[in-house]
Specification:
Strand content: under 5%
Number of strands: 0
Largest sheet: none
GO molecular function, one term: structural constituent of chromatin
Number of helices: 2
Family: Belongs to the histone H1/H5 family. HCT subfamily.
Number of domains: 1
Radius of gyration: 15 Å
Distance between the termini: 21 Å
Organism: Pedobacter cryoconitis
Function: Might have a role analogous to that of eukaryotic histone proteins.
InterPro entries: Hc1
Mean pLDDT: 94
Length: 59
């Protein structure tokens, strides 16, 4: 559950950069957004692995 909380935290933190990039055309915000999305991808993969392990342990 802590990884899911971290995922929600990162998504919430990127909201300002999304606004800056799409509404203001701020290139630096786009770079920060891409970095955050890469972090989200990694966290999501860790969560997927954890879920698979837990699911298979019950069999």
């Amino acid at each position: 559950m802590s990884k899911f909380a971290k995922l929600k935290e990162v998504v919430a933190a990127t909201e300002a950069d999304v606004e800056k990039f799409y509404n203001s055309g701020n290139g630096a915000a786009g770079t920060r957004l891409r970095k955050a999305l890469q972090e989200i991808k990694g966290i999501a993969q860790e969560i997927r692995t954890e879920i698979t392990e837990k699911k298979n342990a019950g069999k």
